[in-house]
Amino acid sequence: MRLPFLNKRTMITANHNRRWPLAASVLLAVCSIFQAKPANVISASPYYTFATGTPQAVLGKGVAEAPLNYEGQTEDGFCLKLDLNVQPGFDDAEILGIDNVLSVCLYRDYTQKHKEQNYTGFRLPDGRVPVLQATLQLRETGKITVGLPLSMLKKPWGKHEVVLNFSGIDFTLHVDGQLFDKDFAIGYPPKEMFIRWHRNARHVTSATLFWPAAKPQRTGKKSRAPQELQYFTPRGHNAWVGDVVTCQYRGRYHVFYLYDRRGHHSKLGRGGHYFEHLSTADFRTWTEHEPAVSIEHQWETIGTGTPFVYNDSLYLSYGFHTTRITSAARRTLDLQWQQIKEYGHTVCIRHDTLRTPPAGSSYSVCTDGLARFRRSGILIHPCENPSISNSPDGRLTMLASYGARGTWTADTPDGPWRCIDENFPPGGDCTFPFRWGAHEYVIGGFTQMWMKSADGYKDMVAAGQDIYDGLSVPCITEVTGGRRLMAGWVQVAGHWGGALVVRELLQRPDGRLESRWMPELMPRTKTPKLLARLLDKTSGFNTPASSFLLSFDVVKTRPEATVSLELTSTQSPRSATWWQMDTGSGRAQFSDDTNHREKTLREGGAPHNAGNYAIEGLPTDGQRLPVRIIVKRTGKLGGSLVDVEIAGRRTMISYRQELETTRLRLTPCGAVLENVRIAPLKAE
């Protein structure tokens, strides 16, 4: 079922300076259940081929161990190919090793908690977690590990080709041509330790070592059906979305996000982040492009920046967080501050003229108008999280944070950048400005937001009027039709990084912002089931699946009405979650205890942690309030995302670890619930 008139601009965009008509919100809520075309991500191929050159050493038939004479340079890396044979019932074993350099192991059941690798999110039907894992020793700095839960393979048992490639920059694990894990190095393996190697003949029929490293080339082969955009996480057992920055350029909406593996623990705990890139022209078909900014040097880990337009070209600013890798980079920052003090403005510096690793702000330029980015090779500012935007006067503005502060302006990306207000923004990290009609705003990373008024900038958090709803580092962009979209990431499992979420913003006449689910991004559902036409007391229901869309109308019978929803699992009762709404106080909250009053951001709560928190200022002026709740569970998440939309004007989302909902209980007080429906989400 599809209603064509819903695609008309007047219906989708409405007038964002007015409140959404209730009839329109209800109609969109009903129609979204029957959405025919989901918003899918067309992923880049995860399959690669390898140009390896001539084999340098081989462990073949009849040879279980042998001396190893490594004549290459460890800076140039190596490539190791294994012919692996895995059969059910194997025991834990080292299957190949280069003494004191590399250890490749099979684990029969990796059930211990491994927060960074997230192996336990991918179990076999019998509950076991068999794992293939390789650990590389780096001189002085430590070890880096890549691995794979075997359940991710199309056929876990049997023969596989395994490729371990150390490029000098990264260490990757490919199985049957598909990339499954990657980590980044600081330092190199000790060359003098490449003395002897061995294999377990039961599992490895042959092993071949090449040097230097292979150069993997992406193929066009696809691995699976497209993934839906809402609640998107990158392919991989340990891969997540970090800070998100967005823009509209030449009719396309671009999403750049910091690609995170291991919850900020890659690259020996330094993060190892870089910018991946998605884009769409219609919000239905999303394309995954090559990385906009990748890691090309050991001294690199990329920090948050912003996209902006200059001379009709798309730019992406970002920071080098090089001081996390080496303290020597501090001298580069000191040089830039010395120049600012001497000249009163910045002086751009080319990377290749420096004797120490670069640190501070840089940028890349899109060369094809879509997805190919070229690095500038220069430093433009000592700020390590630059937020560059276009000003109405045609100039560029930077809100500096992380290593710098203040508002800076320049005529070109290269500068010179001059500070025009050293005290604004007053705080926050990853700050950036945006405008909507007569109102100007600044969002401040995880917890801060300001709106310009006649008396200066108003602290929207202190006023209880912020838009934080469980997203971390939200970014706001104007798109076609005057709509404003807010994109950010939801923290998963208590570590840095999580799932991508996009909202549509609404604006009140006084400038206050609200949010709703974006109709184009509604997940696909099966046919909804009517649970009850009217509820006036506590009622319990079994859920048809652990991922579902629940909808109902709250009809107030008195002004101070409350609604409580309990989500429980028969297998794990302790993971019960409550969502509660109180129209009298205009509050809603996620909690582990119905008797506990959670804090809002204004009160010191932490919505960005996506756990237990409250929001305030709900739209409670109507007698009938439609509520929609999506519960999204996957093994990778290790729990569920619970996403709520209230009256089409406020949203809130929470991650609930280990929650696998099998039963829900609804309790109205001072209200009745009408048209209670549930629809299972379709599997991707």
Features:
Jelly Rolls; six-stranded mixed beta sheet; mainly beta; six-stranded antiparallel beta sheet; 684 residues; 45% strand
Residue share in helices? under 10%
The CATH topology label of one domain is Jelly Rolls
Level-1 CATH class name of one domain: Mainly Beta
Q: Helix count?
A: 4
Rg over CA atoms: 27 Å
Structural class: mainly beta
Low-confidence stretches: 1-35
Question: What would the average pLDDT be, to the nearest integer?
Answer: 92
CATH architecture of one domain: Sandwich
The general outline is globular
Strand order of the largest sheet: 16-1-20-19-18-17
**Record field, number of beta strands:** 51
Distance between the termini: 20 Å
Structural topology:
Elements: H1 9-13, H2 22-33, E1 40-42, E2 48-51, E3 57-59, E4 65-67, E5 78-86, E6 93-98, E7 102-107, E8 131-138, E9 142-149, E10 158-166, E11 170-175, E12 178-184, E13 196-199, E14 204-210, E15 215-218, E16 227-228, E17 239-249, E18 252-261, H3 266-269, E19 274-280, E20 285-288, E21 302-303, E22 307-310, E23 313-320, H4 330-343, E24 349-350, E25 360-366, E26 373-375, E27 378-379, E28 387-390, E29 396-399, E30 407-410, E31 418-421, E32 431-436, E33 439-444, E34 449-453, E35 456-459, E36 472-479, E37 483-492, E38 495-507, E39 513-517, E40 529-535, E41 539-542, E42 548-556, E43 562-568, E44 577-582, E45 587-591, E46 613-615, E47 624-634, E48 639-646, E49 650-657, E50 663-669, E51 671-680
